Amino acid sequence: MLKNYQPFNKKKVSRLRTALNSCLKMANNDIDGTVIVSEYTKEKKVGEGTYAVVYLGTKQSTGRKIAIKEIKTSEFKDGLDMSAIREVKYLQEIQHVNVIELVDIFMAYDNLNLVLEFLPTDLEVIIKDKNILFTPADIKSWMLMTLRGVYHCHRNFIMHRDLKPNNLLLSPDGQIKVADFGLARAVPSPHESLTSNVVTRWYRAPELLFGANHYTSAIDIWSVGIIFAELMLRIPYLPGQNDLEQMDVTFRALGTPTDRDWPEVSTFSLYNKLQIYPPPSRDELRKRFIAASENALNFMCNMLTMNPVKRWTAAQCLESEYFKEIPPPSDPSSIKIKS
Amino acid sequence: MEGSDSKSVSGTVQEKPANYKRISDDDLYRHSSQYRFWSFTPEQLEQKRIDTNAQAVVSVEERLSAFRDENNADLTEEEVKTLLEKAVPVTMEEEVKLVNFYAKKVQGIAQHMNLPTEVVATSLTFFRRFYLENSVMDIDPKTIVHTTIFLACKSENYFISVDSFAKKTKSVREAILKHEFKLLESLKFSLLNHHPYRPLHGFFLDIQNLLTGKVDIKYMGQIYENCKKRITEALLTDAIYFYTPPQITLAALLLEDEALTLKYLETKFKPKEEEAETETEVDEKKKNKKVEDKDNSPKEDKPESSINYDVLLSLILACKEKIIELPSVTMDDAKNIAAKLYFCNNPMKAIANSKRKQEESVSDSGEKKQKI
């Protein structure tokens, strides 16, 4: 019965809202600077980064809620900004339920605007909010969705290079969406040299800490492993205060890699300065991650393998026993994230 | 317990649905923006060019007729005749020629700047795509040459500041940046290019692997370099709109060393004698071939078995034909078209030009008379 009524009501409401909005917008134009930009309204500023301001808004023709990332081109004398170009370039290639959707792009007042799907929250907010309770099944569900998104990037030969809870957004129906492709790049050919100055420090793989100029999509898997640990602990797993300390924190927790399990790791120039820590025993790991099953620990350890060649790929992660054992991953739409 | 795999874990793992199919590399390519936006059948491409040209012709003709109407009183009969003759829109064929001419220029400038192969490739690809969406009558190709190279650098992660770019190309900052967004928009915000160089690397490794001991490494290195050049040339042809990057790579290889390439393809894709299909089956499959699609039949588990040797070979031969058709536009041709373009956008100049020519010929004959 209700279903029969909804479309009619929805249409009416949205038409009304559109009319109302344009009235409001015109009226507000001079007062608080709200501007109508063609099809989209910017209603509320929700964040500001170094190169972009993010607004919440509405797509006028459909009433769909959207987020607008306004790139401050005026502050970049070199035309369209590199981060914006990367974001456009890679989001355009990826249509996947677990990757943020790029709805539209437009130019207004010399600024580039990326219209993205509206995503109300992210994993960082959820982890930090101690009023929110979540279960191992919820974590499994989030890991599954994250890895599906990451796998889709990797099989399209795209590395994200900045995975962290803050960049794993959640849709109103509980789907994880990998977001922020401002640092992404194509998987390099063998001889290409890359910058190791990528990924937010706590989520940085050991090869990056060593300053490697050649690396692969394995760096993303390391980040996912750290995020998994953080979801279980509900505090950041390896919070180094600076780049040097990050190495110490990482290797104290997981053992300093040696040439035996990672051939020639000792040839990295930074290696000599390192304290050599033994890898943690299984019992130490069990004590640190009390709620984790043996399969969950295996899953984590294989993502946090020092040698990037031996580290699991996204496909291996997705096929791990962890996802096959009980409890099954929660249905995304059933995860209650409201405290 | 035997045979009860799915039962023993029931509740945690669902059985694969009946239509379960693993995504193949072909599927992934079909989702790329390169395939979605920039792959066409020859008919579609032709139509696209006709439409883009026709649209511009309409607006140019409107402007010209408005110009004639406005200046009707001041124009002599002679001048109106000149206008109708000289200030006319360029045709679709002329557009294609001019774009090809400038695409070659883009390649030349980018190579002169010592940009990496992929950046050069992206530059000329961007440039050519821009003129599928826009007519040369809307935006003069020479104003967009530097913009495409500049954007290609950024898109390929090869950043050069606009100031040093302007210095290197003897251009100015404002001119480079002016149409940058227009370019991005015309490219449909599709910046990721799959060029045939990566497949080239892959095929080389595979050839050496498959034909171990039968190929000379040093010779292979030589072929590799030559093929790279052939691929860059192929990017100037319409083959890039009709074929996938690996198909173009194989066509380039075939041009470089036919015997080696055929040997490789046979070893890799030709079914062994005992499994060879009957002729009718092969014919049946041939009928099903599509220009872009290697194979339309349902994929089997082994990706290699899904490729039909005969279909593949005929595709690559057709692709090769397209690549050899490298468009060459003479300087004179380009100059004439550029002049036509200039006059249709500046009708007054057409009149001035024809007057000057007349005066010149008059003064020429005057001089001659004096000499006599």
From TrEMBL, chain A:
One of its GO terms (biological process) is positive regulation of autophagy. Its EC number is 2.7.11.23. This is [RNA-polymerase]-subunit kinase. Keywords: ATP-binding, Kinase, Nucleotide-binding, Phosphoprotein, Serine/threonine-protein kinase, Transferase. One of its GO terms (molecular function) is RNA polymerase II general transcription initiation factor activity. Belongs to the protein kinase superfamily. CMGC Ser/Thr protein kinase family. CDC2/CDKX subfamily. The lineage of its organism: Eukaryota, Fungi, Dikarya, Ascomycota, Saccharomycotina. SMART domains: S_TKc. PROSITE patterns: PROTEIN_KINASE_ATP, PROTEIN_KINASE_DOM, PROTEIN_KINASE_ST. InterPro entries: CDK, CDK7, Kinase-like_dom_sf, Prot_kinase_dom, Protein_kinase_ATP_BS, Ser/Thr_kinase_AS. GO terms for cellular component: chromatin; cytosol; transcription factor TFIIK complex. Residues 40-323 form the Protein kinase domain. ATP binds at residues 46-54, 69. The keyword Metal-binding does not apply. The active site is at residue 162. CDD domains: STKc_CDK7 (cd07841). It holds the Pfam family Pkinase. It comes from the Eukaryota. It comes from Vanderwaltozyma polyspora (strain ATCC 22028 / DSM 70294 / BCRC 21397 / CBS 2163 / NBRC 10782 / NRRL Y-8283 / UCD 57-17) (Kluyveromyces polysporus).
UniProtKB/TrEMBL annotation, chain B:
Coiled coil: none annotated. Residues 273-304, 353-372 are annotated as: Disordered. SMART domains: CYCLIN (SM00385). One of its GO terms (biological process) is regulation of transcription by RNA polymerase II. One of its GO terms (molecular function) is cyclin-dependent protein serine/threonine kinase regulator activity. Residues 283-304, 356-372 have a biased composition (Basic and acidic residues). PANTHER family: CYCLIN (PTHR10026). Belongs to the cyclin family. Cyclin C subfamily. This is Cyclin-like domain-containing protein. It comes from Vanderwaltozyma polyspora (strain ATCC 22028 / DSM 70294 / BCRC 21397 / CBS 2163 / NBRC 10782 / NRRL Y-8283 / UCD 57-17) (Kluyveromyces polysporus).
